[in-house]
TrEMBL record:
This is Aryl-alcohol dehydrogenase-like predicted oxidoreductase. Belongs to the shaker potassium channel beta subunit family. Keywords: NADP, Oxidoreductase. Residues 15-314 form the NADP-dependent oxidoreductase domain. Gene3D superfamilies: NADP-dependent oxidoreductase domain. GO terms for cellular component: cytosol. It comes from the Bacteria. GO terms for molecular function: oxidoreductase activity. It holds the Pfam family Aldo_ket_red.
Length: 336
């Protein structure tokens, strides 16, 4: 496993991060989830990403159980705050000082740790003054409950405003967690250049585009039983944007490129996002331990420029590049 610095900080994280969105506490039984975490540890992965909103806090609990007994200093535990949790009452969501502070305490308890390595604002909160949010993060840092602060799916302008406030308050904003893959490149136009300027790294999610880039979905074919596209608990909704014949046909054309590089399709997809020097790590998910080992093998892979050009030529106009898509990802008002 290779490691990269997160932003301009001294924190090093593994190039592959194990994440448990849509799996732990939901799609995958606890025993299988714990087996996947242990497979990640065996593969050299030290960075684990979750969020309190995943499975309404259950995912954090499962991850805490799976990591129990591991040397805490050898791990980087990442979680997030914003989404509605608990009974979803009026203060159970957003980035108010009250919710950030209380959510942090809950995450620490569920994860079974006394500090969070990277605490991330899961979305931008238009209903709370940014100054209030960043002050709450600053206080958690000073209390030692949070070591570093990041965000998720913020626009370039939001990153700039957040980084300036963080600096004034005596800490760094070091990361952004956006969706990024061969098919979804909306961060390349504005977010990545701004992040490079500010010393912020990307912690990218869905590098395999919800499984579409594995090539297991074929144009005109039925999704494999048990796959993300058949998951009625949320997975099918997330993947449906890619379940078009024009996209699936282009993805099938990537198979010779992966074969030429002696990579699986999943490894090619994960390695592709890691070619971007602003990406510190790619988050992978899994329902079986063998998936973890397959994806983790993408660490350290260098894709030749010629192969990158072939990928661009194959995918062509099915790639989404519109920077405005980042702005659309944040709700403009609190969900209650």
């Amino acid at each position: 496993m290779d490691f990269r610095h997160l932003g301009r900080s001294g924190l090093k994280i593994s190039e592959i991060t194990y994440g448990n969105w849509l799996t732990h506490g939901s799609q995958v039984e606890n025993e299988a989830a714990i087996a996947c975490v242990h497979a990640a540890l065996d593969a050299g992965i030290t960075t684990f990403d979750t969020a309190d909103v995943y499975a309404n806090t259950a995912a954090e609990t499962v991850l805490g159980t799976a990591l129990k007994g591991q040397r805490r200093e050898s791990l980087e535990i990442l979680t997030k705050v914003f989404g509605p949790i608990g009974p979803k009452q009026h203060n159970d969501t957003g980035l108010s000082r009250k919710h950030v502070t209380e959510a942090c305490e809950g995450s620490l308890r569920r994860l079974g740790t006394d500090h969070i390595d990277l605490y991330q604002a899961h979305r931008y909160d238009y209903a709370t003054p940014l100054e209030e949010t960043m002050q709450a993060f600053a206080d958690l840092v000073r209390q030692g409950k949070v070591l570093y602060v990041g965000v998720s799916e913020w626009t370039a302008e939001q990153l700039r405003d957040g980084a300036a406030l963080a600096k004034d308050l005596g800490f760094q904003l070091i990361s952004n967690q956006p969706q990024y893959s061969m098919l979804w490149r909306v961060i390349e136009g504005e977010v990545v250049p701004t992040s490079r300027e500010l010393g912020i790294s990307q912690v990218v999610w869905s590098p395999i585009a919800q499984g579409v880039l594995t090539g297991k979905y074929t144009p005109g074919g039925q999704p494999p039983e048990g796959s993300r596209a058949t998951d009625a608990k949320g997975g099918a909704d997330m993947i449906k944007r890619w379940m078009r014949d024009d996209v699936l046909s282009r993805v099938q054309e990537l198979k010779p490129i992966a074969a030429d590089l002696d990579l699986s399709m999943a490894q090619l997809a994960v390695a592709w996002v890691l070619q971007n020097d602003n990406v510190a790590t790619a988050i992978i998910g899994a329902s079986r331990p063998e998936q973890v080992h397959d994806n983790a093998a993408a660490a350290g892979v260098k894709i030749p420029a010629e192969a990158l050009e072939r990928i661009d030529a194959v995918l062509g106009d099915v790639v989404e590049r519109d920077p405005a898509k980042t702005h659309e990802s944040s709700p403009k008002q609190r969900e209650v």
